Amino acid sequence: NKPVEEFYPKSEWKHLRNLRIRQKGVLSDIESRMYKGNGTLLDVNISISILRDPEGKILGSIGIIRDITSQKAAERKIRESESKIRIILDNSAAGITLTDEEDRIVSWNKYMEDLLGMKRKDLDLKHVSVLYPQLEWEKIQQAHVKKMGSLHHLETKARKKNGELIDVDLSVNVLRDAQNNVIGSVGIMQDITKQKRIQEMLMQAKLAAEEASSAKS
């Protein structure tokens, strides 16, 4: 004979009242919290059906309550883990992309946006080939990454949003499910434009020195 509202924190009971269950008659899969006998809170999933007589007068209700405390705790841990991973990715000095089984970009870090001057609309669900000139994408394809499982330190070129090409060091790891089906890949791209320019300058200096030595001889 206790008023049912006593089982809920005030904020949760207010939320349930705002759902207007009596007017709707039935509501399922409502996530809420309830007090246990010792005063601690329990995460619950509730389904409620209103009981009426033949004239439509409300006689009461039936509530089916399922304990989902463990499930909610697991979900919180997953969210915390995802948050930590996102912090690590966004503070990484490399462009990182995650693609699905059809090579569409489904996730990326902030460094990738900054590296290529792109935003969400330029990357979200776009085929990963948009990041590369045609000839470079063909070169990547020839490495047969999905068959080999990984590709490490391939020197190639990436295309920025403004059309500018930059030299990059590319590594790719293929992701597979328990049945060994390809479900996507992780790509790590590092800008090596400055290193390549320095290498070219050193090579030119070496050739110049060799030509000078030859001329002197």
Quick rundown:
This protein is 38% helix and 34% strand. With 217 residues, the protein is α+β, with helices and mostly antiparallel strands.
Secondary-structure content class: alpha+beta
Mean pLDDT: 89
| Topology as a string of helices (H) and strands (E) | HHEEEHEEHHHHEEEH
Largest sheet: 5 strands, antiparallel
Task: List the strand order in the largest sheet.
Answer: 5-4-8-7-6
Uncertain runs: none
Question: How many β strands by DSSP?
Answer: 8
Over all CA atoms, what is the radius of gyration?
30 Å
Shape: elongated
Distance between the termini: 110 Å
Tell me the strand percentage band. Answer: 25-35%
Q: Which bin fits the share of residues in helices?
A: 25-40%
Question: How many separate helices?
Answer: 8
Mind explaining what this structure looks like?
The strands form two sheets. The chain has a five-stranded antiparallel sheet, with helices on both faces. It has a three-stranded antiparallel sheet with strand order 1-2-3. The mean pLDDT is 89. The protein has 217 residues and is α+β, with helices and mostly antiparallel strands. The chain is elongated and about 110 Å long. The termini are far apart. It contains eight helices and eight strands. The protein has helices at residues 10-18, 21-24, 69-90, 110-116, 120-123, 134-141, 145-148, 193-216, and strands at 26-35, 41-52, 58-67, 95-100, 105-108, 150-159, 165-176, 182-191.
